[in-house]
Design brief:
Layout: H1 2-9, H2 11-40, H3 42-63, H4 68-78, H5 82-109, H6 111-119, H7 126-151, H8 155-207, H9 210-213, H10 221-255, H11 258-292, H12 296-309, H13 311-323, H14 325-332, H15 344-366, H16 370-395, H17 398-418, H18 420-423
GO cellular component, one term: plasma membrane
Keywords: Cell membrane, Membrane, Transmembrane, Transmembrane helix
Transmembrane segments: 21-43, 88-111, 131-152, 159-178, 184-204, 230-250, 270-288, 309-332, 369-388, 394-419
């Protein structure tokens, strides 16, 4: 009984509970948007949505210079030194805004080029990239604001920002998809994230007057040097990762057909929903803890609190998802997507392995282990690409999710070996 009381009163339990409510909200929103996409755009439209999402993921990292995890770490370290905090925020803000504006110009004036590269010659959605060029600076600054809040340890406010942002995204998606079908779905993807700025600014401004402390005189290039390792790590993971997924999806379209690519995107979309439980709690709770850990014993304690407290709950959850897969497909999508059922086992198995490796991967960011991270990521991405190509030839679309599971297994083994001293 005392153990249960201790768990109930722990910060991790409170944050996990609030995080779970936030994820339930996001999944609920996902049910609506997924159903709309299934009904109004179909498997082929789902494939196009997947391509744009992958492009957006890469663009987000480039526009923020991959600083997101580094911002969390350094704000957590210097939050009590007001002068250093001012210099840090000013430096990062001006750097990100400059990069975002340059990228916006590139997107706007070369919209036709990006349309061809992302959607192919059969679709004309140039306006989507022009809209993205206008939304990008707002989105980049919102990422900075949320990262600052996360670094300050305000986990609850970070979760509230994400929850409100998701609700706003739902409204935008519903209106645009109903009105413009596939074009509306694509447009909602680029507009919704920019609206997060206003929510983030409201919450951050209560903690720290960000725009009042920003000054060009406070710019300190030394912080850019310190963040450069995070930039390299994020560029490899968050830029190359989505690009590899984009290449794999295009291979599916060429080898099989666009509907098969849509089925894989559907499975990936479902996976994204339940993986939120792990990824969000890692970002808002475990990353700051790992960044602040002083020795291997403290790091070991953080690792095992995840493996004992979070991972078992996740495994239990995905087991339920597997047995409810037919219901989930019919609820979220339509009977046209029933073929996705054959992808569940390998996707879920691979995601359990991925969840087990995620916290170890976050240690790369927390301790700035740049070279080790880049090598492991390049090996993983290369393995996934070649395995997916080979296994797709043998097993069709199932081969792609099999490749993901095998890749996750190899990646976990590499991390367990590398961090063995912090685990055992």
């Amino acid at each position: 009984m005392e153990v249960l009381k201790k768990i109930y009163k722990s910060q991790l339990f409170k944050i996990s509970s609030l995080n779970s409510l936030s994820i339930i909200l996001k999944i609920g929103i996902g049910l609506v948007t997924s159903k709309l996409l299934a009904v109004f755009v179909g498997p082929s439209g789902m494939a196009l949505v997947g391509n744009l999402r992958n492009f957006m993921s890469s663009l987000e990292t480039v526009s923020t210079l991959g600083f997101q995890n580094g911002i969390v770490k350094y704000v957590a370290e210097i939050e009590k030194d007001k002068l250093q905090l001012q210099k840090f925020i000013s430096t990062v803000f001006m750097s990100l805004l400059l990069v975002a504006l340059l990228l916006s110009g590139f997107l706007y004036f070369f919209a036709a080029f990006w349309n061809y590269r992302i959607f192919g010659s059969h679709f004309e959605y140039d306006f989507v990239f022009k809209a993205l060029s206008l939304a990008l600076p707002w989105y980049a600054v919102s990422i900075l604001l949320v990262s600052v809040l996360n670094g300050l340890g305000n986990f609850k406010k970070v979760i509230w920002i994400n929850s409100i942002g998701n609700a706003i995204g739902l409204l935008v998606s519903v209106v645009l998809i109903l009105e413009y079908r596939t074009f509306g779905a694509l447009l909602s993807i680029v507009i919704s994230p920019a609206l997060l700025f206003f929510v983030a600014f409201y919450f951050v401004n209560k903690e720290i007057a960000v725009f009042k402390i920003i000054s060009s005189a406070a710019f300190d290039f030394s912080f850019i040097k310190k963040l450069s390792s995070y930039s390299l790590m994020a560029l490899v993971s968050s830029v190359l990762g989505p690009l590899v997924f984009l290449m794999v999806r295009n291979n599916i379209i060429q080898t099989l057909d666009i509907d098969q690519a849509g089925y894989w995107e559907t499975m990936t979309r479902i996976s994204t929903y339940y993986m939120l439980f792990v990824s969000t709690i890692l970002t808002v709770y475990f990353l700051p803890k790992l960044s602040a850990s002083k020795d291997s014993q403290e790091t070991k304690s953080i690792f095992w609190s995840f493996y004992k407290g979070i991972l078992p709950v996740f495994i239990f959850g995905v087991t339920i998802i597997y047995f409810a897969r037919f219901f989930i497909i019919k609820l979220l999508f339509t009977n046209e997507f029933l073929q996705v059922e054959s992808l569940f086992f390998w996707q879920l198995f691979g995601d359990v392995l991925k969840a087990a490796s995620l916290i170890l991967g976050y240690q790369f960011f927390a301790k700035r282990l740049t070279i080790a991270f880049i090598v492991s990521e390049l090996v993983s991405l290369g393995l996934f690409y070649f395995l997916s190509d080979y296994l797709m030839g043998l097993f069709g679309i199932q081969g792609v999710v099999m490749a993901q599971a095998l890749d996750n297994f190899v990646y976990l083994l590499i991390l367990l070996l590398y961090f063995r001293k912090s685990l055992f």
